[in-house]
Amino acid sequence: MPRITVTVDGVRYEEEVEPRLLLVHLLRDRLGKTGTPVGCDTGNCGACTVMLDGRSAKSCSVLAVQADECDVVTIEGLGRAAELHPMQKAFHTEHALQCGYCTPGMIMAAIDLLRDDPDPSDEAIRAGLEGNLCRCTGYCNIVRAVRRGAREMSGEEVRTS
Amino acid sequence: MIPAAFDYIRPASLDEACRVLGDAGDEAKILAGGQSLLPLLRLRLAYPAALVDLGRVPGLRGVEDRGDHVFIGALTTHDEVLRSAVVREHVPLVALATATVADPAVRHRGTFGGSLAHADPAGDLPAVALALDCVFVARSGEGEREIPAAEFFVDYLEPALHPGEVLLGVRVPKLGAGWGFHYEKFHRTAQAWAVVGVAAAVRVEGGSLEEARIGLTNMGPAPVRARAVETALRGVAPAPGGNGGAGGSRDPLRDACGEAAEGTAPPADLHAGQDYRRHLARVLTYRAVRAASA
Q: Are A78 and A46 in contact (CB under 8 A)?
């Protein structure tokens, strides 16, 4: 079985993995990172979005073996309950969730968007999050939250871990 | 659902990749970014015995300005294509279509060559490759081979690549001054797959269309070059003014675009029936040619 080395939320892991194991299953079932949910399973909904070598990726559409020697940041690596990442805080403040299932992926996609566009328009936010589906909110509060998160993060470097 | 079991091979060089693929024959599939292949494996629509991951093979990635054409390495991600100043300047139609592929996270992983070699008629890039007369460069143990776009898309998910052949990249001809481009796509809001898409490259001279090249997305089992409408568009004025042909006034451009679905065999599925797809092909071709001529 292939042996991989992968850094997840700042911790290095060495794992033996079956080739067909998906990154999202490595994260959840082997490493206990259940903050990253599985949504549609087929690359549509974006719930499982993580940072892979600094850019957003859907972890249901990546094999664990492809992440060999890569750096992964999940929602759990962004902040702690006592000290939320500004984007997490913004989602809380703006009530940008109801059931919360899409939220980890939304937050990862939002942070990715801000790397290229630190002060995005509403239109840019909607385009940046087009790979992330929410079936509760109707997106208005999510767009507000990303705007607020961007404001709070401006002036400081976009932090992903 | 997890994919069925397969062997995983990660060659470190192109020679090794060609050798491994040559040995494996049609039992093996090439893995590039995996953004089309992994969902297929998960849905058990494909169950190869082995995946050959090209992710660590050097030399397959990047965009090069080569004078009369731009060479795009097969493993160049959609995101890298969009960030390339050479692509934006010299082959803007590629950038216009790539910007509509899936979403940012998928564009970070998905590759230009993988998307074309997947040969999905609903993919956005094949129509562009057809409209621009791109040339595909592939290599196997027997050497290199060039395949014109018009011969590359054989059938549904079936490119003209032999088992054991690796797509190295694609030559995208620069069409030069006087050409205008547009990619017009109709899709459901929650999904980026085209119901129908139209890639248009046009050259306007003296107020009329001297040349038009039209590629259609999702209008058949393979991507289609719409030759009939190209002929019909020749000599037509793309900007008639007035109300654009609505309300009964004659608009030669709209009349010509009536030929857009000629000879196509579009699929019927839950998104659209055949008649509606033919209607979309005509309407979207009109919009694409108008935008490309502006």
A: no
